[in-house]
Amino acid sequence: MSTQGGKTWGGRFSSGPDALVEAYTESISFDHRLYRHDIAGSQAHARMLAHVGLVSAEESAALVKALGEIATHIDEGRLAWRRDLEDIHTHIEVELISRLGDTGRKLHTGRSRNDQVATAMKLWTRDALDRVVVGVSGLQRAFVDAAEREDGVILPGYTHLQRAQPVLAPHYYLAYVEKLERDRGRLLDARARLNWLPLGAGALAGSSLPLDRAFVARELGFDGVAANSLDVSSDRDFAAEFLFALTLLATHLGGWAEEWVLWATTEFGFLELSDAFCTGSSLMPQKKNPDVLELMRGRTARVNSSLQRILVILKGLPLAYNRDLQEDKEAVFDAVDTVERSLAVAAPLVASSRLRRDRIGARLEEGFLDATTLLEHLVKHGMPMRTAHESVGKLVRQCEENRCRLAELPAGNFNSIVPGLAPGVYEVLGVEKALAAFRTEGSTGPKAVASALAAWKARLAAR
Ligand code: ARG
To answer: How many CB atoms lie within 10 A of CB 252?
Structure first.
């Protein structure tokens, strides 16, 4: 098809590239993953070419058909990747030309690999994004199911990893559902900004041919055409935004994984992980290690590094297309693979884990989880907040000296702070009663938690 081997750009060259250069510049070893999306873009382009009269209806039909056959051919692993054919776009076009001859040579009319690769990347990213959104909902479902399953369990809530105030187990699980919902929202926001068609922008300046970009946009499910051709061929904002959304999602998974690694320790003893999600030690027979959670925590680094990678690739790039942009793909692919696999394993891990109610319950009264509720009780009795804070602090010290809980202090200790505080004060003491006292919207109070749980069940059922 050209003077230089299979190259689609060989006309002006007198010699082919050195083997080292070929190896250095190729992208087929990774961008072969774009083939379905590249072909979808080419089929839409071929239909448009007939629509505007640049090829005949018969030629267009032949192109669309042959491209579909090439997709199947690749599905079956029958197209050999050749380093000298550089990238997936060239492979498909060369194969098309070998099948259709001159008709095949018309496909690239009005197109550059620059708008072609941007289109294929956007289509691939959009599909990946949609799969991740489904995966996020799957994990949200697992957390909501766990919230129902463990309803009624009271957990110690922590700040600074020190015991703070009691929380209902569903409140705990729903905290992650909320984080995941923001992740989902970020993905969908990124999708809306991604969904503008690059094709038709040509190499950088557009085309003098009567291309119908809106036609192609409709064919490929884009919301419209990207407005500025010069912007298009350098634009990888969609990849950067997607990678940020994935990174924050992976960060949420990593934090949660760390928490459960802690909870599964003998020291915490809050959580029983299913054997299926743990591994043993080659030496220590008693070990049951939370490797899945550890890897999920560790792989946050991979996703994060993909984000850094795309941002650094984009840093300092002048308009318009630069070959640096070829480096976007592995960053996106690796982050998607990592997050998809983490989500896929996280949902059944959550489903198969159980809170160790006996172990949690046995030490629930340790750590003065009811102290803040007592403070608020004093405020209800008209005591200024700061005075109440100091008074409860003193009561806690008395408990520590007597090795007892607040609920075990004699009435006199309370009445010396506010005459008549006892016996009513005992109604808010003890973790269970302290928890029942929470009443604000979004709090861990039983009413607020029940309505949040019901709302999430309905919301996920409607998805
Ligand atoms: N493999 C290239 C990439 O991924 C395709 C675009 C090449 N364009 C060019 N002018 N060399 O970016």
So the answer is: 18
> Are 393 and 419 in a shared domain?
yes
Burial class (CB within 10 angstroms; exposed 0-12, middle 13-18, buried 19+) of 318: exposed
Question: Domain limits at 147?
Answer: 114-151+176-205+227-361
In a domain? residue 222: no
pTM beyond 0.70: the answer is yes
List the residue whose alpha carbon is closest to atom 12 of ligand 1: 326
Q: How many CA atoms lie within 13 A of 273 on its CB side?
A: 27
Q: Name the strand (E) or helix (H) holding 163.
A: strand 162-168
DSSP-assigned beta bridge partners for residue 224: 196
The answer to whether residues 181 and 233 belong to one domain is yes
Cα angle: 51, vertex 54, 60; to 5 degrees? 60
Tokens of 231: 């912007």
Is pLDDT above 80 for 14? no
Instruction: Say how many C-beta atoms besides its own lie within 10 A of residue 29's C-beta.
Output: 11
Q: Taking the chain, what is the end-to-end CA distance rounded to the nearest angstrom?
A: 50
Rg from Cα positions in the chain? 31
Active-site positions read 160, 281
Distance 19 CA to ligand 1 centre (A): 18
* Closest approach atom of ligand 1 to CA 87: 1
Centroid of ligand 1 to alpha carbon of 177 (angstroms): 40
Contacts 24+ apart (CB under 8 A), 59-66: 59/103, 59/106, 62/100, 62/103, 63/96, 63/100, 63/103, 63/104, 63/106, 63/107, 66/96, 66/99, 66/100, 66/104
Q: Which of 300, 333, 361 is the last residue of a domain?
A: 361
The residue among 38, 90, 10 whose CA lies nearest residue 81 is 90
Pocket test for ligand 1, best of 38, 90, 117 (most atoms within 8 A of CB): 117
Q: pLDDT tens digits for 185-211? A: 999 999 999 999 999 999 999 999 999
Residue 168 falls inside a structural domain = no
Q: Where are the alpha helices (DSSP H) in 315-370?
A: 328-351, 357-362
Whether residue 159 is predicted with pLDDT greater than 80 in this model: the reply is yes
Cα–ligand 1 centroid distance for 324 (angstroms): 9
Rounded distance between C-alpha atoms, residue 103 and residue 332, angstroms: 34
**pLDDT (tens digit per residue) in 23-80:** 999 999 999 999 999 999 999 999 999 999 999 999 999 999 999 999 999 999 999 9
